[in-house]
Design goal:
heterodimer; A: 62 residues; mainly beta; two-stranded antiparallel ribbon; 6% helix; B: 371 residues; alpha/beta; five-stranded parallel sheet; 15 helices; 18% strand; globular
């Protein structure tokens, strides 16, 4: 997902279908706007370099 | 490459498939296990196995979190859900996993307050807005999902939310892999490592596989070209006589994992001495429970949980499927008594389950035809 807006511990992110989600970003060092994040169960677990953003955040395991 | 469709380029896929053929030793049969249910899903969705020669066999591993939950734990969940004043929450696929008599969805139809959530944070939100209810979250998943539960519990504790608890069924991926490697039933040549588990735990936990068992591991992404490249990397290791953990999914997986997530997990969880896995039996130190600091949030301590062990139905062969001993279509009830609409086994319930992947992408007809 791509971060649109970041506030303390939470980011509003948009997924590939265009749906917006409120995501907890406490587990990521620093999140900035337009950053791509790998999200599982409402929590960002990894940051992804922008050039590979879309392709990195599909599929997954739990 | 930048966009997802580049990782689904059919022409490039055929090029990599050609390189796979070139890396094979004539006459040798290769068995490669994809550990993760997400990989199983991608393999059948995109027809990856159709691009591989017949003597490269993909074996499906135990990495589907819903599939490995034993019936007794579902019964425990239903028992808690049926208590007065309880709002019971879980992920959507967990609702349809059969217990000994019912599913959580059946319990909901019978009047229990069972709700589907997307995140444990949604369950915590429910607890905040319904202070007169006991909100319980049925936590499942490997190290990918455990950080969300840990973070939720940390927030609940910080906010002093007292009507929230967690029935913890989180499991860890390394112990079942070790059990599979020790199993005499199965000879594997290499492993496609679980990409998103590795974003949290990193690559190091898998180093015992090449070190102790001389098998290569390649941590993989989930797109078709990721998987083909990972299979090629495994075969090249075998061709060159190497055995190591390689990372194909470098665009996401750092070698050391997510240290913050590991820190939160270490605070909130501790290892259980043993845990029952569906079809695999009890495996030592293979699951998580809440640590002493979070015992007030432990639903197993807060409620009277039956904790009864229930044997799997005789007709169901999920255990053999999860160990990679049989293919889904070899199960006696696959596609007949057991379908996604009326599942007997867990592997048919979750979209990450091998049986559901075979069923949904038409493998039943094709593979029976080949036999």
């Amino acid at each position: 997902m791509r971060a649109l807006d970041v506030r303390a511990g939470t980011a509003v992110c948009v997924d590939q279908e265009g749906t917006r989600h409120e995501i907890a970003v406490d587990l990521i060092e620093s999140v900035r706007r337009e950053q791509w994040l790998l999200v599982h169960a409402g929590v960002a677990i990894a940051e992804v370099d922008a050039p590979a953003g879309e392709a990195a955040t599909t599929g997954g395991d739990r | 490459m930048k966009f997802v469709d580049e990782f689904r380029n059919a022409q490039l896929g055929r090029v990599v498939a050609g390189e796979i053929v070139a890396a094979l030793e004539p006459g040798r049969h290769y068995k490669v296990m994809e550990v993760c249910g997400g990989h199983t899903h991608s393999i059948y969705k995109y027809g990856i196995d159709d691009l591989l020669p017949g003597h490269v066999e993909l074996v499906h591993g135990p990495g589907c979190p819903v599939c490995v939950i034993p019936m007794g734990r579902v019964d425990d969940g239903i028992a808690v859900a049926r208590r007065g004043g309880v709002t019971f929450t879980c992920f959507g696929d967990m609702l349809r996993v059969p217990g000994s008599e019912f599913t959580l969805l059946d319990a909901k139809a019978q009047g229990a307050d069972v709700r589907m959530v997307y995140s444990p944070l949604d369950a915590l939100r429910l607890a905040r807005s319904n202070p007169d209810r006991e909100v319980v979250f049925f936590a499942i998943g490997f190290e990918t999902t455990a950080p969300s539960t840990a973070l939720t519990l940390k927030r609940a504790k910080a906010e002093g939310v007292t009507n929230f608890s967690c029935l913890c069924n989180h499991v860890t991926i390394v112990p079942p892999l070790r059990a599979l490697l020790e199993s005499p039933d199965l000879r594997l040549d290499g492993f496609i490592g679980p990409g998103h588990v590795c974003t949290v735990v990193g690559a190091r936990p898998f180093e015992f596989i090449p070190a102790d068992y001389r098998r290569p591991v390649v941590i993989s992404g989930f797109e078709p070209l990721d998987l083909l490249q990972s299979i090629l990397m495994i075969l090249r290791q075998l061709q060159e006589g190497r055995c190591e953990v390689e990372n194909q999914y470098t665009r996401v997986v750092p070698r050391e994992g997510n240290l913050r997530a590991l820190e939160v997990m270490a605070e909130v969880f501790e290892l259980r001495p043993h845990f029952e896995w569906r079809g695999l039996g009890f495996i030592s130190q293979s699951a998580l429970k809440l640590s002493g600091a979070y015992r007030d949030f432990d639903a197993e301590l807060r409620f009277d949980v039956p904790g009864v062990r229930v044997a799997d139905p005789k007709a169901c062969q999920c255990g053999e499927v999860l160990k990679g001993v049989i293919k889904p279509w070899e199960c006696k009830v696959f596609g007949t008594a057991c379908t996604p609409e009326h599942a007997i086994g867990t592997c048919m319930v979750s979209p990450e389950g091998a049986c559901a992947a075979y069923y949904n992408y038409g493998r039943l007809a094709r593979e029976k035809e080949a036999v």
